[in-house]
Write a structure and sequence with these properties.
The chain is mainly beta. It has a single domain, classed as Protein of unknown function DUF192 (Jelly Rolls, Sandwich), CATH 2.60.120. It is built from 3 helices and 9 strands; from the N terminus they run αββαββββββαβ.
């Protein structure tokens, strides 16, 4: 998602650093979101719809949700396609640098199923959060929402 310093190195190793916004962003500088895209997760507990910002380009994925403190309960960000430069799915690695809000990072396979959920990631952490397998997209939502809604690995994710 977001790249910073060491994240660029991680990218060269086939990883992508997540929540570690670019240096141009500043604390509290939250731009108005672009048009929101509905993302639906179908789980054993029903259908859950999130209205998320799309991060399609490398700069958007580098910035991600850094510095954000007001993420709506059913908001978030979808990193699609992942990787932004195209190509086949690959392993992803995100981090929480410069991200003050805990997030659930949902790694999505090419078939639309959830490969892994990294729940309640630690704000401001530079520890890598790996996907564990190749993924085609990544969804970030508020920390704790996946467990609260009963979202689990293997659930289906869809968007237009």
């Amino acid at each position: 998602m977001r790249f910073h310093g060491l994240a660029a190195i991680a990218l060269l190793l086939g990883a992508s650093a997540c929540t570690g916004r670019d240096a141009a962003a500043s604390a509290g500088n939250e731009a108005a979101p672009a048009a929101l895209t509905p993302v639906t997760i179908t789980s054993a507990t029903g259908r859950h719809v999130f209205k998320v910002e799309m991060a399609r380009t490398q700069p958007q994925q580098q910035r991600g949700l850094m510095y954000r403190t007001n993420i709506p309960a059913d908001g978030g960000m979808l990193f699609s396609p992942y990787p932004p430069e195209g190509g086949p799915p690959r392993e992803a690695s995100f981090w929480m640098k410069n991200t003050p809000s805990p997030l659930d990072i949902i790694f999505i396979r090419a078939d639309g199923t959830i490969a892994r959920i990294a729940e309640n990631t630690v704000p401001f952490s530079e520890a890598q959060v790996p996907s564990g397998e190749p993924v085609a997209a990544v969804l970030e939502i508020n920390g704790g929402r996946a467990a609260e809604l009963g979202i689990a690995e293997g659930d289906k994710v869809s968007w237009k």
